[in-house]
């Protein structure tokens, strides 16, 4: 089976990591996989070695020039499946197919179109979005929560499937831990609470900062490290200053050694308001870190409350603070990290994710693009 993967993002986030894990994982099991990526993007840079790589990036969702270039690429490579990993990628693939991509295939069938869905946002309802989503043969949802939302938005259930995202557990184990106290100039022995996420509204870091304000009143030694970049940086920095938390809450930005940082946190916290699944949680579990997270989106599919973490309602800073204090104050809570490691080993490995994805390809490729419409 030959799959051509499309991701148009320039930045590096959890979704791009999943694309790279999927492509490399498919190649590891003997499948052919090629990648269309942003010419100047971090994904292209990281995927450059030993991979069929085509640099294309649409300027807008309806970039016909980019779609034409993709159409020519599909005709040249003749893949069985197009796997679009982001909304602009879905649009570009749908337009490419409408321009006759794959018409040279035996029997004249175009490749099947598969769309990854990693966010628990509703599908857009404008006419172009409705058209492009009708071109998708199968949506691969990263969680049951996302799949339920797709069905609620009108996608036929038979055109949806849940494939939980996975991580390379062995790679996490091999990553050296970062001395976060030294790297971020933290007091020796201070407990460190970590968060890794883009600084955007739905990740809920404003509630984490508010929770930090409550935590340090009860546990003054605790420090919070929020790793990531995004549009809310200035807002969060201002919130930290207003709460007088400059010594307690750090926003060091984007780091390439994020897994090593996670391994050194005493507690990993995810404060999301909405969340498709949360692959940074999987990294934390693979590093045997206890977790405090919200009940948003697909998070409860990863974190079993009281088993490998504690779950609290979204937007509830006080509940978040209480859970943080409870875990940090009770040595018995270390068992949450051990349970998390066992859970990720059993259910959320990259090998399981790749095998399930390959099974989707086999099913949709047999039908051919547009067979059900």
Short recap of the structure:
This protein has helices spanning 14-28, 42-46, 64-77, 87-98, 127-134, 144-152, 169-174, 180-183, 205-218, 233-242, 258-264, 279-286, 299-302, 317-329, 335-347, 350-367, and strands spanning 2-7, 32-37, 52-55, 81-84, 112-117, 138-141, 160-162, 192-196, 223-227, 249-253, 267-270, 291-294, 309-312. With 373 residues, the chain is α/β, with parallel strands linked by helices.
SSE layout and pairing:
Elements (H helix, E strand, L loop, with lengths): L1 E6 L6 H15 L3 E6 L4 H5 L5 E4 L8 H14 L3 E4 L2 H12 L13 E6 L9 H8 L3 E4 L2 H9 L7 E3 L6 H6 L5 H4 L8 E5 L8 H14 L4 E5 L5 H10 L6 E5 L4 H7 L2 E4 L8 H8 L4 E4 L4 H4 L6 E4 L4 H13 L5 H13 L2 H18 L6
Parallel strand pairs: 1-2, 1-4, 2-3, 4-5, 5-6, 6-7, 8-9, 8-11, 9-10, 11-12, 12-13
Helix pairs in contact: 1-16, 3-4, 9-14, 12-15
Compute the number of strand runs: 13
Order of helices and strands: EHEHEHEHEHEHEHHEHEHEHEHEHEHHH
**CATH homologous superfamily name of the largest domain?**
Glycogen Phosphorylase B
Side-by-side strand order of the widest sheet? 3-2-1-4-5-6-7
Low-confidence stretches: none
CATH topology heading of the largest domain? Rossmann fold
